[in-house]
Amino acid sequence: MAYYEEDDLARFSEVGKHRPDLFEKFMAWYQACQEDGALSRREKALIGLAVAHALQCPYCIDAYSQSCLESGSNMEQMTEAIHMASAIRGGASLIHGLQSHNSVNKVSM
Amino acid sequence: MSRALPIMQEKRQQLPRATSDFDEKLASHGVELRAGTFETLQVNVGKLCNQACKHCHVDASPARTEIMTRETVDQILAAMRRFSISTLDITGGAPELNPSFRYLVREGRRLGGRVMVRHNLTVMFEPDQDDLPEFFRAHKVEVISSLPYFLEQQTDAQRGRGVFEKSIEALRRLNAVGYGLERSGLTLNLVYNPVGAFLPPPQDSIEQDFRRELLTRYGISFNRLYTITNMPIRRFLDYLRRSGNEERYMHKLVKSFNPDTVEGLMCRTTLSVDWTGRLFDCDFNQMLDLRVAPGHPQTISELDPAKLAVRTITTGTHCFGCTAGAGSSCGGAVTASG
């Protein structure tokens, strides 16, 4: 069995099969989040792309790459968003070095 | 005498495959696609072009030989005179490469009509074309030019290597004679279309980007930016099939069907004429050889707007391209939002 079939993205609604009420609630919230608000759809699509990379979700990366193009972003802007996500991920790991330092310091003379 | 007709030997292209029928989709939303008030005669004066863009629904290129004759141009002018047609929209190929192009523009303007030319910018650098900005200005032509993006990489990927640099130089020349400048009365509109198998962004939003970037990077001004969806016809459909994107793209178009676009579709107010003088509901139908509905005038010499006014528009699955999202027409998005 292969994981992450490309066609599964279009089948997302099947996830709601056993509890459609919960899925509908999720979709209403999800779609409301995408609308123009204090942030534009374009900014939201770039956030979505960055989060998709942080989560390393292939479905989300595919979906938000398309959303970014269709909301007017170009590859330079999308790549900067991906770097932001990656840099924060890297930084989040790196700052835990202080946990390690603290742990070591606690038992060291 | 009329020349050999290569178009007659051309194979009719298979329509794109879609999961849904366009007419059924209209019916399911309770909308009809019928002609409205006739406003614009869009004339395709031939398939010859100095470029061979990857998305071209005409399949135009330097190798094409189909060119409208002076005789057909005269039939168009006669129709404009007889029916007081208010807008002439000249397209191609690169329409400037038709030897009768300047005659058509001059006479069209003399009849008092608004004349629009779909000008690809780079044709200005072809032999005997360097005075085009002055010619356009002299005849108050409304210029509409494709520039898929304000960056070189995207533009050249679609329109060919070196096209971006030439396009920027051509836009500077148009600005230099007054086109696209405030209060000049000379209109320069640009056309954005996606460099790939995706839908255009909201028109107002990408227009702001173009205005800011073209001005700050290159000192270029323009009036409006039109977003146009790539139509799954000819070269773009070939690209979709080659790249394995046809099913996904057609699914996207069908899924994005917006019934609010139907009223503003250009086929309702436009008639399209091909290089031989045959009539179509739009330039896209022309390239698919989908004629005006039977029982109506079929050629420019038979044109009678009253007889065409009540016709049902001929449709196909490609029509989902004009109804997706905010809609698409030769004048850009049809509605404010998708």
Structural summary, described in words:
The complex is a heterodimer of chains A (109) and B (338). Chain A has 109 residues and is an all-alpha fold. Chain A has a domain at 39-109: AhpD-like (Up-down Bundle), CATH 1.20.1290.10. Helices cover 68% and strands 0% of the residues of chain A. In chain A, helix 2 packs antiparallel against helix 3 and helix 2 packs across helix 4 (75-95). Chain A is extended and about 60 Å long. In chain B, strands 6-5-4-3-2-1-7-8 form an eight-stranded mixed β-sheet. Chain B has a single domain, classed as Alpha-Beta Barrel (TIM Barrel). Chain B is an alpha/beta fold and 338 residues long. Chain A binds chain B through residues 10, 40-42, 66, 69-72, 74, and chain B through 149, 151, 154, 194, 196, 198-202, 205-206, 209, 251.
Main sheet of chain B, how many strands, which sense, barrel? 8 strands, mixed
Largest sheet of chain A: none
Please tell me how large the radius of gyration of chain B is.
Answer: 19 Å
Number of strands of chain A: 0
Number of strands of chain B: 8
Radius of gyration of chain A: 19 Å
The second-level CATH architecture of chain B is: Alpha-Beta Barrel
Q: What are the secondary-structure elements of chain A, in order, as H or E?
A: HHHHH
Q: Find the CATH superfamily of the domain at 39-109 in chain A.
A: AhpD-like
User: What series of H and E elements makes up the topology of chain B?
Assistant: HHEHEHEHEHHEHEHHEEHHH
For the largest beta sheet of chain B, what order do the strands appear in spatially?
Answer: 6-5-4-3-2-1-7-8
Give the overall shape of chain B, derived from the CA principal axes. Answer: globular
User: According to CATH, what is the class of chain B?
Assistant: Alpha Beta
